[in-house]
Amino acid sequence: MDLLFLSKRIYLGTEENFINGGIIVSEDGIIRKVMRTPQEVNSYLYNTESQAVFDFENMVLMPGLIDVNVHINEPGRKDWEGFLNATKAAAAGGFTTIIDRPTNAVPPTTTLAGLRAKTSTARGKIFIDVGFWGGLIPDNLQELSSLLSAGVMGLQCSLSHTAEPVNKEFPAITTEQLHDILCKLDDNVVIAVHAESALQQPVAANENEPKRYESFLRTRPSQMEINAVQAITELALKHKKKHFHLLNLSSNEVLSLIKDCKDKGAQLTAETCPHYLSLAAEDIEDCRTEFKTQPPIRSKMNQPALWEAIRTGCLDLIASDHSPATAGPKCLTYGRTRGNFLNAWPGISSLQLGLSIIWTHCQRYGLGMQHIYKSMCENPALLCGLERFKGKIAEGYDADFCIWNPDEEFQVSPDMLQSSIKSTPYTNQRLRGVVHATVVRGLHVYQQYESFGQPLGKILLRKTSQKVVKFVRM
């Protein structure tokens, strides 16, 4: 029996306005037809028997969101956050697909064995669909072909050291090493890069005031991102058949480099994160290590240019870089170590809140629903080679929907978060935009005020005759 999803505000993304209509979904979760008028819906219902109907009335029904930058710490660090809670949090935020970073698990996803450990651990625990990045580190060249053939979305590396203990498991790579490896990879492979490079003369931390945010911020100036993005854009212009993706950019000073590289024909995409668009360094109080991340949250003056870059398409995606950790590594336990920004794990927990954060702030910068669709649905699907069945409401696509009320407000509290880590910089903030339901392949995986059902998400592996699909610039 087919399913029928109704709303007076269906947002396809391909048209400027909402449509008042319905979506017919097959039993196996594929969109059969999009009906664009109430008359078409009424005619269909009149001529069809035993139709299962879900009427969301005035709620916005849009494609399910896709987050390409999520740290799931299982296997190995399940206490930080495993697949069960991470995918619950994603579903509660309207996300129907997330892509796991390779860095924080033990083992990391730098070998075929590591990928198999990830997928076997995830099966039976995920409420939404999950794909995986493969890791690119200095000594795993022999593993890369196997990882790509096995279906990772691309290869992810870092140009700067990760915090301990992860750095031992996922060491940084140099641009020289990366260049040598690129020469040995097939064309069109996606290389995702954490773009910070160490300075020749590092800025010393203020060891006398470790509980002040500025003591940490000064150690990671914008120049680290500028140096890294400069190096990657040079590689992208040398290797134009490789697709480079810049992860979690914080500094508006790199935007001109990105635009110039794109204009010269390189396959380059870039993302920023909700925290860089909504939080400001000058507002961070002493000891609030929930705000620590890398690259760091910068000043308010940094934000307008980032929003403008999303509006123009210079920045292609918005992704969470969700990286929760327990109270000990985050220096949130009571005692002498509490609030030490220099020692705390750099990661922000915000996966469930991404849509609401962006919607709360975007309109003051001239952005609207179409920019959320582009940066959080369509372009993430393109990046990961999922654009033939994810990221759109169209015939033949998975029936992945985010149903939400953009006019409703709520206050963030720890008890509402599905993540296993409740500490977030957004606690007590008032946000706009409430997710009421999330549908994955026709199945209601999340409904507000109701308990979760069974974890019926699927493992997504990149299936192409080539290793990846070329990103189509918009």
UniProtKB/TrEMBL annotation:
Signal peptide start and end residues: none
GO cellular component, one term: cytoplasm
Pfam families on file: Amidohydro_1
Cofactor: Zn(2+)
GO biological process: allantoin catabolic process; purine nucleobase catabolic process
GO terms assigned for molecular function: allantoinase activity; cobalt ion binding; zinc ion binding
Record has rRNA-binding as a keyword: no
Superkingdom field: Eukaryota
Domain Amidohydrolase-related: 60-442
InterPro entries: Allantoinase, Amidohydro-rel, DHOase/Allantoinase_Hydrolase, Metal-dep_hydrolase_composite, Metal_Hydrolase
Pathway where this protein functions: Nitrogen metabolism; (S)-allantoin degradation; allantoate from (S)-allantoin: step 1/1
Keywords associated with the record: Hydrolase, Metal-binding, Zinc
EC number: 3.5.2.5
Family according to the record: Belongs to the metallo-dependent hydrolases superfamily. Allantoinase family.
Subunit architecture: Homotetramer.
Name assigned to this protein: allantoinase
Species of provenance: Glossina palpalis gambiensis
